[in-house]
Description:
The structure holds 2 protein chains of 2 kinds. Helices cover 31% and strands 28% of the residues of chain A. Chain A is α/β, with parallel strands linked by helices. Chain A has a single domain (1-319), classed as Thiolase/Chalcone synthase (Peroxisomal Thiolase, Chain A, domain 1), CATH 3.40.47. In chain A, strands 1, 4, 5, 6, 7, 8, 11, 12 and 13 form a 9-stranded mixed β-sheet that branches. In chain A, a hairpin with a 3-residue loop joins strand 12 (286-295) and strand 13. Chain A is globular. By secondary structure, chain B is mostly helical. Chain B has one domain (3-77): Non-ribosomal Peptide Synthetase Peptidyl Carrier Protein, Chain A (Orthogonal Bundle). Chain B has helices at residues 3-17, 22-27, 38-52, 58-63, 67-77. In chain B, helix 1 runs antiparallel to helix 3. The longest helix of chain B is centred in the first third of the chain and has 15 residues, at 3-17. The interface between A and B is medium-sized, with 16 and 13 residues.
Amino acid sequence: MKIIANYTYLPSSKIDVLDLISAKGNVLDLDASKMVKNTGFNSLARVQNTSTDNFIKLSAEIFLDQYNDSDLRVDNIIVVTQSYEQRLPNISSTLQGLLKLPTSTFCVDIVDGCNGFIRALTIANKISEPGMRTLIVGGDVYSPMTRRAELSTDILFGDGYSFTIVEQDSEPFKSKIMTDGTRGDFINASYRENVLNMNGVGVFLFTNTEIPKLVKSLDWELDPGNGLNTYYALHQASKLIVNQLSKKLKLDNAEVPFFSCSEIGNLGPGSIGAWISTNSSKLDTKANLTCFGYGAGLSWGVASLQMDLKQNGVQYIDA
Amino acid sequence: MTHDDKIAELKKQMSEILEISESNLETVNMSDIAEYDSMGKINVSLIIEELFEYEIDFDTLDSAKNFSGICDILAAKV
């Protein structure tokens, strides 16, 4: 399976993290600078006043414009998000209509977080025959959930979505997904309270331990050695964890930075798409890609596939 | 490096990152150290991993009430 197109849609408005800390917390300047240095997030993409559902609709309208109608052939839509406000209809069905896709399009929404992109790739692979294409829409409008969250959580998350099209082919797709529900309380938000609670230390320690363990357990090589460059896309949780994991796993991305969302924030299931978009000028369009996800559940996973990117980029939306 | 050498190095590095003297580190509760916040705990866990090749989990780290508690955990696990 290969990624053939990837766009990331972000609100045009951003919030400076130092300003956010200053407005929200009683934190000394030196401590605030340390916080920003550790997370790596200088500013966060934030919607002004719109819902997840509306932001995805606005993104879809631009996606349709960007994509030549004759090329937009999609058999499945998988939407991965946690911040939806509209219970019914599901977002994937709404997208089928907005994108003028056939009524035979298979549509499904998944409620999942930072490992959601890996899960969506895995599902896309399972439901696709060669030649079939799946649109994966991943991300969140987190700000309504983080506004009243602890400062240390609020300074991590941005708003935005990636739209990624994968096409099934004869190339091997490999993935492995793990879950540990006993630590589910490390990242939680109830529908009623709508506040994102996170045990940052717990999540860091879990990721630092479980991802290397997972990699050791794989029965395939992260770099298939097929002559194409292999890139490693890590969920952009924070600069600290991304740098720690890339170092521990001894990954090599040549000139492409492992962390590249310093002006966006953590987009949850949209962060790997955002990484691909923000590095569009640095990535070979045809390459191998191994992605790592880790987050709510707790859940973590890895997926290896190919890219043959015809379209890739970031688009800003006034929302 | 012996286990005792590693404990001495841990104390030295923790004292630096937590901005507390080594003698005070031995006597105070971890919860009373201002710098032992989220980042402080993460940094301590990384020092432990580097020195002892032991990946400490959250519940274990959080169960240590003072430096001596951390040493007890390391003596038992490593």
